[in-house]
Amino acid sequence: MQTILQKLLYEQDSGRDAVLVTVIRERGSAPRGIGASMLVGEKGRLAGSVGGGAVERNSELFALELLREHRSAERRFELHPTSSGDIGMVCGGDVDVFFRFISNGDVVWTAIAKQALERFSEKKAGTVVLSFAEGVPDSYSAEAPSGFFENETCFGIAVSPGERAILFGAGHIARALTPLLSSVGFRVTVIDGRPELAVPEAFPSAERVICGDLARLSDSLAVTAEDYLVVMTHAHTYDFIVQSQILRGPFAYCGVIGSASKRAVVNEKLREAGISDSVIERVHSPIGLAIKAITPEEIAVSIASEMILCRALLREANGMNEK
Question: Beta-carbon neighbour count of residue 3 at 10 Å?
Fold first, then answer.
């Protein structure tokens, strides 16, 4: 969301209108989770993603129509091959997408973007609130929600400071990886269910250390579309338990430690749990760049290198050379 808001301000300063596109509901399997957003300008997608493929392309085309018509709208995309609204995807579910037209002279959205980006600079989260009702202005709240919310009058998108790395597992590799990631600009959160390992003293460079139930992650933290997720618990069972939760929502990067044979077994269980192949394919497993790493410290270097590369590619894809 940080990149989207930066791009929005740039478009406004350049005298160009834009459309903010947000997934607000989903049923069944869908390419991206609720809250996934992208910004569309007169030349097409500017930043962000609502899932790629036909959903994203059709959303982009519809947003261009709305740009010409200077209006907002809501639209459903059905992902069933035999449905009347078939768009060529067979995920098995469907998504509702909200399109907010934002004129280049919209002082409300200028204020929203500036407030949110100021909070970013302070490493504080907040919420962008969009209204369904005509004449009711959108707004920004400094309150940090647990995630996306919707009611009869509005919906809210959690805006985090971005580029947070969440390490699931507090073992030897996590201890080596945390200072590496901190040194290159990631804000690190470590979570583990073992109280003897999940202690702040073991991770002095981490922003947060959580001793929590890995089977109930939502009790301890909310994963956002800008988070980088590293799964390396102490057992394959827990790796699956974690993945079966985090892969149901948006994320920027997800890597899972383990061999190719382990990946095949876990992936089959994920499919049985309802995780789509399009999401599973986004997982980096075995994790890390192939540098023949052996020790925990070497493995940490390979993981950090892969995350740096993925971050750079995402920034390039969003047209941003710097954060």
Answer: 21
One-letter identity of residue 143:
E
55-104: pLDDT as tens digits? 899 999 999 999 999 999 999 988 655 545 544 544 456 889 999 999 99
Which residues, at least 6 apart from 204, have a Cβ–Cβ distance to it below 8 Å?
none
Tens of pLDDT, residues 215-263: 999 999 989 888 999 999 988 899 999 999 999 999 999 999 988 888 8
Question: Mind listing the domains of the chain with CATH numbers?
Answer: 2-161 (no CATH), 164-316 (3.40.50.720)
> How buried is residue 269: exposed, middle or buried, by Cβ count under 10 Å (0-12/13-18/19+)?
middle
Which amino acid appears at position 244 of this protein? S
Judge contact between 188 and 209, C-beta under 8 A.
no
- Distance between CA 233 and CA 238 in Å, rounded? 6
pTM higher than 0.90: no
- The Cα 57–Cα 66 span in angstroms is 14
Alpha helices for 207-295 (secondary structure H): 236-246, 260-272, 277-280
Strand partners, 78: 86, 94
Rounded to an integer, what is the distance from CA 113 to the centroid of its chain? 18
Contacts with 67 (C-beta within 8 Å, 6 or more apart), sequence order:
17, 18, 19, 40, 41, 42, 101
- Looking at this protein, which amino acid is placed at residue 90? V
